[in-house]
């Protein structure tokens, strides 16, 4: 079997590096043909030296200049800016594109990959949160396929293998519950940034860690699941599972539930997405027996963690509302991290933006341009609402 | 789609009645064409009146005479004895045969169904415990298919759907642990029949309930799994899971585990076997949220529950040894239920028979006749060993 030729969007980030770790272990199965990163020319240079891609791209102009200086011989073609990322995304020789840029920067190249009919292993959350309808429609039109890398969606994807979609009764998205799972309202009102950044299980960037503490992250994952699995929001249920060993579950119409279980290590879902429908022998990954213990599950308290419900409200409101919610939340979390918004204010900003979107309307979300216009408007509203907080 | 035409071996027992309960709910999907029972002519008569099979069979001569008297018109053909059961098993118009006789009586008709190339939904445990190699070889030769009805094996079968067998690292067979899960040796030495019959979760017949208390049942299930899934015994691990909600699990080479979860209701696995690869909408079956709670898993203590290990020893010993172990255990459990053997004596009898089989040899197990000869010899040994206990 010829190796799968892989392009990576965001190769210097956490998911990108883990992807290369898997590829490094299976040199016969995979070949890196194109890499795109944001501004980390030092790490991208190392990756180019090790994997010899045909194309490498850096978004940041000065970092790109340093990259050019490091590789004067032209064995790897170099490109800069958004165009470079899109070229990596649609690189003709690539069979599979790993979409692992962080944030809205992932939208344009991911759309380009789907338009080019690529199989996209998706780690970028904004792709489906901001533009789920557009992305899935584009994938269907171009014969492209989306395979999730997020641990929860990979779990559901694995549970659905060999099953008929019509037989699905419900998806259970599991959530760690974050650092404030057992907190009361008074505690939440006085949460510090340091406390919010101390996630009990997963080590992630600050934005995602805060989203995990508010459960906004789980709400966004519900939006992604709605699009990835073409399922109605009423069929998605969030369950707090502090042990983080059951990564999600699918309930079928006969009452049977399939759960995917494993160590919390992103290399598992990454490897599954790269090799699907096969599995790679990851001898280093196994759930130790001590982790088969005391698995608890509970519904979140919507009065303390309203952000998850806001995601379902956004889905019900209309195609542009999830993008507005995503924008509001980015502004709100940044304000919290900068000490300008209390923890509970994050949900208030998000709620306020959804309310204003309902009052003023958002227009359609049929193109990336329209989605990005919604994003801009919602950010402005969010800044106004956040500015009204006196702390 | 035309209805699936079903023959049931053991229609008046617990699994048989639950199968008819499912069929009753989906009259467009299933049609009963043949029924076989042992001696309960009253219940079989009711079933004939309700489902109008083309053929009905009773093993017991006098019960058969009463059945004949009840249906003089010939709309349902009636047959008696072992020949009747075999005729039901190989009934030409049946697409699927439910094998739900209890005990060794299930062997001959199940083999007949496999020889006739039927899809066999298997509930009879002795089929694979006593004659796993013969049955699976026969199935392969005749293009017949075995679908498990046992909750643990159905769970594994469901977890394997859409997965490659080569990607399986391990099967986790879960066990309730029975009523003596937390008992010490002194307690086990003095267990009464009443205590042993008080299973904490599943309501089953006395023989299976005792087997559950000794973990012999789980050992037999390991033997069945070895044949059903063509997997080496070293890849099968037993896990005590007192909550009985996770019915079994499959670990893959990438470290991912799929678990099948659900209410402990045999209609789930029965419906899955009948409709495979589809699922039936069983609105009445759902795991209530309170059951998503405190799932524990632990390895059994082999010093207190040696019967599970004896099953693996029997698999290692050779093709006839599991049949000898099964026979020994039947004799030992009957002696325990009759008050002639202490609880811990069951394992001693089983161990003694395996030891004697090693010393004296068992001959081959290539035919049902050979397997039944092993069964007879082992019973004799077991009676001798059990008789040596003074209580």
Describe this protein's structure.
2 copies of one chain form a homodimer. With 391 residues, chain A is an alpha/beta fold. Chain A has 2 domains: 4-148, NAD(P)-binding Rossmann-like Domain (Rossmann fold, 3-Layer(aba) Sandwich), CATH 3.40.50.720; 164-263 and 289-387, RNA polymerase sigma factor, region 2, helix turn helix motif (Rna Polymerase Sigma Factor, Chain: A, Orthogonal Bundle). Chain A contains 16 helices and 11 strands. In chain A, a hairpin with a 4-residue loop joins strand 10 (246-252) and strand 11. In chain A, helix 14 crosses helix 16 (368-387) and helix 15 packs across helix 16 (368-387). Chains A and B meet through strand 10, strand 11 and helix 12 of A and strand 10, strand 11 and helix 12 of B.
Tell me the helix content of chain A: 40-55%
With strands numbered from the N-terminus, the spatial order across the biggest sheet of chain A is: 4-3-2-1-5-6-7
Give the number of helices of chain A.
16
- Report Rg of chain A: 21 Å
Major β-sheet annotation of chain A: 7 strands, parallel
CATH superfamily of the largest domain in chain A: RNA polymerase sigma factor, region 2, helix turn helix motif
Total count of domains of chain A: 2
| End-to-end distance of chain A | 60 Å
Q: What class would the helix/strand composition of chain A place it in? A: alpha/beta
Summarize the helices and strands and which ones pair or pack.
The structure is a homodimer of 391-residue chains.
Chain A: E1 4-9, H1 14-25, E2 30-37, H2 41-51, E3 55-58, H3 61-70, E4 77-80, H4 81-89, E5 96-99, H5 107-115, E6 119-122, H6 126-142, E7 145-148, H7 151-160, E8 168-175, H8 185-189, H9 193-197, H10 206-214, H11 216-228, E9 236-240, E10 246-252, E11 257-261, H12 267-275, H13 307-317, H14 321-337, H15 343-360, H16 368-387
Parallel strand pairs in A: 1-2, 1-5, 2-3, 3-4, 5-6, 6-7, 8-9
Antiparallel strand pairs in A: 8-10, 10-11
Helix pairs in contact in A: 1-12, 2-3, 4-5, 5-6, 6-11, 6-14, 10-14, 11-13, 13-14, 13-15, 14-15, 14-16, 15-16
């Amino acid at each position: 079997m010829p190796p799968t030729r892989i392009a990576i969007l965001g190769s210097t980030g956490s998911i990108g590096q883990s992807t290369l770790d898997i590829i490094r272990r299976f040199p016969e199965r995979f070949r890196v043909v194109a890499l795109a990163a944001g501004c980390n020319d030092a790490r991208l240079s190392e990756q180019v030296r090790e994997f010899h891609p045909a194309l490498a791209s850096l978004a940041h102009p000065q970092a790109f200049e340093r990259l050019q200086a490091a590789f004067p011989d032209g064995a790897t073609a170099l490109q800069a800016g958004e165009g470079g990322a899109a070229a990596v995304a649609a690189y003709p020789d690539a069979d599979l594109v790993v979409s692992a840029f962080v944030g809205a920067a992932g939208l344009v190249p991911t759309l380009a990959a789907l338009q080019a009919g690529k199989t996209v292993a998706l780690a970028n959350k904004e792709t489906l949160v901001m533009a789920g309808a557009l992305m899935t429609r584009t994938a269907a039109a171009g014969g492209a396929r989306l395979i999730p890398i997020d641990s929860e969606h990979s779990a559901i994807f694995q549970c659905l293998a060999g099953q008929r979609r019509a037989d699905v009764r419900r998806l259970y998205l599991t959530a760690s519950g974050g650092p404030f799972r057992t907190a009361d309202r008074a505690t939440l009102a006085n949460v510090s940034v340091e406390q919010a950044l101390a996630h009990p299980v997963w080590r992630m960037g600050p934005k995602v860690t805060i989203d995990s503490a508010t459960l906004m992250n789980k709400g966004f994952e519900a939006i992604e699941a709605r699009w990835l699995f073409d399922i109605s929001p009423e069929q998605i249920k969030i369950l707090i599972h502090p042990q983080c060993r059951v990564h999600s579950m699918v309930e079928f119409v006969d009452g049977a539930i399939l759960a995917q279980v494993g160590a919390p290590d992103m290399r598992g879902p990454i490897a599954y997405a790269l090799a699907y429908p096969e599995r790679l022998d990851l001898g280093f990954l196994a759930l130790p027996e001590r982790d088969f213990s005391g698995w608890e599950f509970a519904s979140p308290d919507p009065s303390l963690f309203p952000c998850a419900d806001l995601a379902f409200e956004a889905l019900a409101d209309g195609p542009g509302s999830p993008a507005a919610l995503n924008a509001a939340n980015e502004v709100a979390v940044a304000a919290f991290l900068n000490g300008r918004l209390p923890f509970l204010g994050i949900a208030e900003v998000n709620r306020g933006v959804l309310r204003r979107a309902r009052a003023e309307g958002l227009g359609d979300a049929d193109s990336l341009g329209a989605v990005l216009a919604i994003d801009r408007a919602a950010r402005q509203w969010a800044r106004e609402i956040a500015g009204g907080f006196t702390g």
